[in-house]
Amino acid sequence: MDYAEQDAAGGYAEGVPCWVDAMLPDVEGGKRFYGELFGWAFAERAGAGAGAGSAYGQYTLAHSDGLPVAALAPKTDGRMPTVWTVYLATPDAAALAERVRRAGGSMVREPMPVGPAGTVGLAADPEGAVFGIWQGGTHQGFGKQREPGSYCWTEVYSRDKDRVDSFYEGVFGYGGFDLDLDGVPFRTWSPPGAEAGPETAIGGRSLMSPATDGYSTPETPPHFLVYFNVTDADATAAAVTRLGGRVQMPPHDIPYGRVAVLRDNQGATFAVLQD
């Protein structure tokens, strides 16, 4: 972690992404897909995972180099989305949930304890983009990030940037920094106390439209996109196709590396970054 991402106790500062998980209809299939794609190994933990999936029973932790990097959880209701969720750290999940509501967001799932691991909740911003909140206990979050095979970035895709910016910057105290990425207005967010800019950013906001993000449709709801670091974005995109997934946005260069937006063989969308 960068200094700006740490709290006084050495954990994750509030608002910093600390965990990701995928809700899938077939966890065993997900293990085969991501195990081959990222080289992950897996261990099941009944009812004691870090994220929302733990509320539904088996929670399968993914490890890279023996360190926790993500989790897969079963969907128990077909109406649930097949999706990757990012969790933002907080020292007080109940207080954060109240701030979310006061700022115009909502709680999809109120904070609930997950044994000694911590406390989890699911929130939605004023446009409906869903993110998790995590108050760490024995599980603080990633054991590895920003290295190949692990989480490296997240951004929310919105249609009303002013409404969304004021929500996240009000709730988490982020410092915002505006960029123009090939004509797309983009804003990075840095933790409180850090000089706002790409060097300290822990996430960002982009605008969503087929003309700007290259993969959504007018019916696609606002959402978060989770990125994983890879050594070769083109080879990863080819592997996704071979494994039964699909490429939603082909590998292409941006100022910060080479990226691709992909969908796994069950429908969960994610992105990769080769830096």
UniProtKB/TrEMBL annotation:
Domain VOC: 16-136, 150-275
Pfam families: Glyoxalase
Gene3D superfamilies for the chain: 2,3-Dihydroxybiphenyl 1,2-Dioxygenase, domain 1
Entry-linked CDD domains: SgaA_N_like (cd07247)
Source species, domain of life: Bacteria
Region Disordered, residue ranges: 194-215
SUPFAM superfamilies, sorted: Glyoxalase/Bleomycin resistance protein/Dihydroxybiphenyl dioxygenase
The name this protein goes by in its record: VOC family protein
Organism: Streptomyces huasconensis
